[in-house]
Every structure is written in structure tokens, then in C-alpha cells.
Sequence to fold (329 residues):
Amino acid sequence: MDPSTHQTTAGPARPGAPAPADALLGWWLGALGVVIFAFTIPMTRLASGSLADPQLPAVFVAIGRAAVAGALATAWLGWRRAAWPRPQQWRRLALTACGVVVGFPLFMGLAVTRVDAAHASVVTGLLPMATAALGAWMLRQRARAGFWASAALGTALVLAFAAWKGGGGWQPADALLLGAVAAGGFGYVQGARLSVGGPGVAMPPAEVISWVLVLALPMTLPVAMFTWPTAPVRIEAWGAFAYVAVFSMWLGFFAWYRGLALGGTLGVSQVQLAQPFLSMALAVPLLGESLDAVTVAFALAVMATVFLSRRLAAAPSTQTQRPTQETTR
Fold:
């Protein structure tokens, strides 16, 4: 059934559900953010190198990129003449910074020096479930059981792929990657809370990540200076660092947080299920890693669950939902 026809004939969507046009635009903006973020793991690997062939220090790549992005964000906010955050917004900005400025980049950056980009991409494929679960809890967003079933199916496919790719075993670096998943999901949701908050709390999505980076500058700038590389590195490593600083750490969030705000965390977050496979595909030309037919098959299956979960994240039929609303609201 066409969503606009449904809404006209059956009444307004349930409270908290995005309008169909907003949901679609939010989904596409989320997809744009995912494409930008898909470069993050191979670019981080290219910037940091491996234990056998080190390039830029992993801590410098993780924290230094936030310092560079913070400087750009400061200039952008000044050009925009953006208003200073209100007192009630600073706490959520700080929580967002803990997840997306410190936790995710640091854990992931340390991990990719120990495992290849394909392995890291598979494990961080759990990020959509972490984001959706935290979003459902923190933002009080509800979805039909079918949504959770499709999200669980996509996550199960990612786990099955991880077991096949890793020979059925886990490596110590997987603990770092799981820490990155937890931190990233937490940071995404905290940023979304600022983007969709009520009067006095809401902040334009582009300003959310910018103020987060500015808030973190007193920590990121000294760490970047202290960990500045002392040995010569390849020019490709510096180019990869520039990408993760400008796009992964800043511009990608413009699309991502706007997408979460428009389309809802539950539906938009599931687009991330495609990100591991995009990262693996990008690792082929960037890092010389291989991509086989089984990987492509898993990618197609997981991407199918992304589209299915987007449909199932929409509001249930008003005819079946109204009695529930009358008894629970």
C-alpha cells in the first residue's frame, strides 16, 4: 500500500513515526553517510599501516583526525555565526564526543593494525543493531516485530560471514572492534537525540558534529601534537589521514545525523548493514585485498535485509495500531 494513500485514508501516522517523504529522504541521506563512512576502515588501515609495515601512529590517526576536523568545524561555525549551545545541550554533546570522537576511532584504529580491513569490516557490521537497539531504548522508538526479525537476520548473516572469514574463531583485535561498535552506536544515538530533541534541546544536524568536535579540541589537539609522527611515512598514508579527518570525522555526519533526524534511528540505522561489504569492496583497489564470490553473495543477502527492514520500520497499519495507542497513550 502506498504510504501517502494510507495516511490520507486512515488518519495520521502514529506519534513518533516520520512522514513518508521525510523517511525516504532520511534513508537516502543515511545511505550517503554510509558510503562516506565505508571508506573509513580501508583509509584508516592505509593511514596506520600494519604491525609489520607501520605508517602513521594509530593513536595519532584516531585522535588527530578529530583535531583537524575540529579546526575546520570551528571555522565553519564562525562563518555560520552559529549560536552557542545551551546549557542542557553540552552534556549530550560531551556524550556524543565520547562515542564518535574518542571511542570508535581509537578502538577501530588500534584494531586495524592487527587485522585486515575485510575482517574489521565484518565485525563492525554489528553497528546497525547496536545503533537500533540503543535508539529504540533512548529515543523510545517502536517498530513491528518484523523489523527486529529482519535486523536480526541481517546481523546473523554478518556473524555467519565473520565465522566463515575468520575460520570460526575470534582474534584479540575483535574485542577492540566490539568496543568500537558499542562506542559508535552510543555516539550515533546521542547525536540523533540532539538532532530530534524538543524545544531548547534540538540542534541542526550539521551543528551537532561540529560542536562535538569543537568541544573535544582541548583533548584532541594536545594528543595529536604529542603523537605527531617522527618517522617518515608514505604520501598515501597522509592522503588517507586527510580523508578520515575531513570526510569520516566531519562531513559524513552532516548527511548521517540529518538522515537519522528525518527518517528515525530504527529505519535509517539499518542502512549500515551494507557498510561492511562496501568497505571490503573498497579495500580491493585501495589495499590490494581480494574479494570472492562468497563475499558478494553475503553482501547481496545483507543488503536485501536493509531494504526489508526499512519497509518494516514504518508505522503499522492504523487500523491495528489505534487500539494500542488508545490503551497505552
Q: What stands out?
A: Residues 19-226+234-328 form one domain.
